[in-house]
Amino acid sequence: MKYFRLGQDDREDQYLTIKGLINLPCFQQIKQGDISGLPKSNSYMVVSSYSDKLPNILSNQLFMVTQDIFALIQLFLGEVDYRCMFLVNRRRNIEKFYYIPQLPLINCLSSQCKSNLDKSHFTKIVIKRERYPDIFRISNVKDRVIIISLPLAESILRRDIKGVQLEQIWLEE
Fold this sequence. Notes:
By secondary structure, the protein is mainly beta. The protein contains three helices and 14 strands.
């Protein structure tokens, strides 16, 4: 089975900052992948965005997806705990509704992985050769690493989804 890292397109016009996330009392838990401290629904202001459209995937500050991708996650994983967030950019007069799914956390990094010492940036991601869920988050790393299977990646690419970046993940030899 092939796996891919799912993330937000890192082109400059896709970059945005959500005001106030870092001030949440549960922010450190959220960074580690536990969304239980977040309220069921919230709204936040987008501070900087160079585009007139918000992407379908946000993963720089927090992993969030739109309804299209969330429906695929539910299709592949089944029932998933989630939180909702409504983002508003008043300067550009745009708003969008996002879901924050609670993804399975799996410790699957291989010793062949290449990263800096604190695992906050990866140059090459290698995971152990096992069977994994179709979407999950790698645990015990500072970087937010969301992994998806080939069937889920193909499903995402078949839809009109904007702001997605896929990077192939290597399996341990």
